[in-house]
TrEMBL record:
<dbReference type="GO" id="GO:0046872">
    <property type="term" value="F:metal ion binding"/>
</dbReference>
<feature type="region of interest" description="Disordered">
    <location>
        <begin position="331"/>
        <end position="378"/>
    </location>
</feature>
<feature type="transmembrane region" description="Helical">
    <location>
        <begin position="262"/>
        <end position="283"/>
    </location>
</feature>
<keyword id="KW-0645">Protease</keyword>
<protein>
    <recommendedName>
        <fullName>Leishmanolysin-like peptidase</fullName>
    </recommendedName>
</protein>
<keyword id="KW-0472">Membrane</keyword>
<dbReference type="GO" id="GO:0016020">
    <property type="term" value="C:membrane"/>
</dbReference>
<dbReference type="GO" id="GO:0004222">
    <property type="term" value="F:metalloendopeptidase activity"/>
</dbReference>
<keyword id="KW-0378">Hydrolase</keyword>
<comment type="similarity">
    <text>Belongs to the peptidase M8 family.</text>
</comment>
<keyword id="KW-0482">Metalloprotease</keyword>
<dbReference type="GO" id="GO:0006508">
    <property type="term" value="P:proteolysis"/>
</dbReference>
<feature type="compositionally biased region" description="Polar residues">
    <location>
        <begin position="331"/>
        <end position="340"/>
    </location>
</feature>
<keyword id="KW-0479">Metal-binding</keyword>
<dbReference type="InterPro" id="IPR001577">
    <property type="entry name" value="Peptidase_M8"/>
</dbReference>
<dbReference type="Pfam" id="PF01457">
    <property type="entry name" value="Peptidase_M8"/>
</dbReference>
<keyword id="KW-1133">Transmembrane helix</keyword>
Amino acid sequence: GRAAGCSFVNETCIDEWGRVSKANQEFFCNEYIGDQRRGTTDEIQGCSPDLSSKAVCSIGEYETELPGEYQYFSSTLGSHVGGDDSFIDFCPVYKGFSNGDCKNPESQAFLGLASNEDFGSRNSRCLSGLIAQRRTAFCMQIACVVEGQYLFVKINGRWMLCESAGQELDFKSGSWNGKIVCPDPIRTCPTFYCDRDCLGTNGTCDYNTGECVCSYGSPSRPVIGLCGNTTLESELIDSPLMDYYVPTTDDLDGFRRRRTSIVLWIATVSCGCIALILLAFLLRWTGCLNRPRMCFRTAREGGEQIPDFSSNKDKFVATLLFHIRVHNPNETASQTAGETENSERDASVGFSFSESEVGDDPSIPGSDPGKVGEEEVADDIAPACIIRRRIRAE
């Protein structure tokens, strides 16, 4: 009943309907096992008070009726049923099996339930739980981490945090789904709250303040106050509690490797992001991501190549003027008046023609029309959007 409160002492262990309150489930039980189920794993219903071994509920049937105040199961199992110890008011409690010690590797052959149980480790302890919706118990490794005051349970190779009593941790064992019910961290790791759990002070731990409290004065008029210094030496005590105490999480088997793998994963992702950013910057710097958008495709159907207009801009303009005159004769007369002005403007912006270019284009004064046939102008001339862009560029 350590740190169980006043209700543990003042109230009954089993209510009138034969049920155990949630606060007392770690200490008392009400599961009655018939003779046909004894000697099987169905007997496993909980853990011994010190969590050292799997246990069975110490409930049985007497030949005579129990005293009226101890007939906890009169409305369910009968007035003859109760715990096997009169010293604790016939309250049924968990009693460990002789072959149910979790630190003994040979216990697995007799009381092993799940494939992920751990028998034989120094820090293996019994934890209540469920498997296939049936109440039972498992042997698992536990650890009280001094730095941070955490209680961990190792399930399927992973350390899982128990933050409060009654917290359920899900796990899978083969085709079965199971749950581990976390023990009370205060009772499981008592030295988190008081140094050495007040050993050597003749006092008890106040879990609210973390101080050792002693009783002074006479038994009739006790005075409660803080205890003095412990009479024990400062070195660590080799006790069952110290089997599962570790200074930091780095001392947990497998916990450091898991944390290291997470760090490596984060570092890998970060390096990949940086590499992508640098690649994008390099492509943009070289111009691969900043080329002007073309208004035509890279290649036309039939394999015709896109004409290169950058080799001889002046010749391109002259060819364009010739094309307009040949293919738009109705508009030539209306444009004659404006040609002189356009020619003067062309001259003013720097258009000039070499003798070879003049001889090839009949639209230019002094050219030889007979040489035009040597270079036929394609009907499928470049799109007008490129022409306008080229002229503006000039």
